[in-house]
Amino acid sequence: MGHDHHHHQASGPYADQAVPDGELPPGELARRRFLQRLGLVGAAAAGSGLLAGPAAAAGPRPARPVPPAPAPGRLRWLAGDHHVHTQSSYDAMHTVAQQVTSGRRHGLDWMVITDHGHVAHEKFAVKQTYADVLKARAANPSMLLWQGLEWNVPSGEHATVFFDAAKDEITALHAFERLFDGNVNGTNHTSDANEATALAALRWLSGQIDRGAIDSALMIANHPSRNGRYTPHEFRNYRDTAPHIAVGMEGSPGAQNDGGHRGGYGNAPGNDSWSGWPSESYRTFGGFDWMTARLGGLWDAMLAEGRGWWITSNSDIHQANGSTLVRPDTPGDWYDTHGRYPDPVDGGTPQEHADFWPGEFSRTVVGAASHTFRGVMDGIRAGRVWVGMGGLVSALDVRVHAQGGGQPATLGGRVRVRRGGDVTVRISVRLATEPNTTGRIPRLARLDLIRGAVTGPAADRDSFTNPDVSVVQSFTPSGRATELHFEHRFRNVRDPFYVRLRGTDGNRSNGLEPMMDVQGAAAPWDDLWCYANPVFVDVA
């Protein structure tokens, strides 16, 4: 898979404020000036104030106002992929243009380019890639295209980070990578000091929004269980420190065509893994991360606190399965000296890889108020998201009505009901009518409505279970209709809860639950699932 961590320690005269500007070499002076233009001077520019020392995490930060949710019927549901690599990643190959073309071919409306944080990437590739992104935007005006970063989270794993494209997003992105990427600054390994650095990074992003340097930012934790690097308390700390930025995690990883283990989830605990995770957490279940797939697991434990922690899905594409493109031969140090590989060439033979093209297999569908950069970001931030595999479901509409209440809530929203009142969940599903890559039309076999109790903040910040979670009803499509409608009513509601949905083609399950994917025999197209983010029910 080539997702290994690389450890580098940044140093140089630019970081020593005792060295006068006039004594700096031109390159070092340029680095210092770059940070000063962002308002990062003194200790901040040197990286010592923000990057060093196990500073205590700030207390919970109140969530920033999110624009009021439009009525569910007025939303535009836009499909996208927030985890896409290009030739500017040390382990990838395709150009920005090739990725965007494939995304459009597979029906995507938005994409985020997320090359790996790396010393060579920060030094050479950020601006080169941005030029490619600008060209792709001009050539594909209907595609919302961001340049983000796969952040090597200090003391954690990987995460997607991206900014609203309304301002100079490239300047903030470049500074963020230089200051806070674990590969660039040698802060990858698990430690209290490095955990504090990750929180400092989120506070820095929040500060850039406060001072108007950027309009908006999002962080989504990638393949959260793959290496056991993330802990429950880190997720809670991220969310408390910057709830308007750190909003969730990949519910299912990319690299679904990895025949040995979907998503590259074939690992065992390592030196930086958290000891509290059970062995099964290092595997996928129906292609979904254990944190999401396990009923009453980490995702449900986060939702039990009554605040959003949303899931997404994506391709994590490095090399596309079935493509005839290959990387030209280059010397072994090519990437380190250029920050990107040459454009791929046609080798004439379809290649077998772990990754699907953007939108080919997995997609994140966002309910946006408008087809704009901010519209999609606000939709993700608000949790108006469902995710699907293999074209199992074409469209999903969820509306939760409270007795005597006003406007119904959709995914990520909340309704309030008087104690003793009823709550009705109405679901509409549009089934697949077109064949997917296999040439088959997938068929939804079952849709589960899941209810979980909301019990408030966890006393143990490393807890990862919610025992009060269950499937309250399973809907089974019948007949030949392609548009299905289901309804469930919760009567005499006394306590707060949330509801969420998952669906399956029914090919592999353990009762109602997804089965662990078989090592060495994963077949993604034969085990398809979809999941939706929750709707919360508050009790007056």
TrEMBL record:
InterPro entries: Pol/His_phosphatase_N, Pol/histidinol_Pase-like, TAT_signal. Residues 1-26, 54-73 are annotated as: Disordered. PROSITE patterns: TAT (PS51318). Residues 62-71 have a biased composition (Pro residues). Residues 80-155 form the Polymerase/histidinol phosphatase N-terminal domain. This is Polymerase/histidinol phosphatase N-terminal domain-containing protein. It comes from Actinomadura macrotermitis.
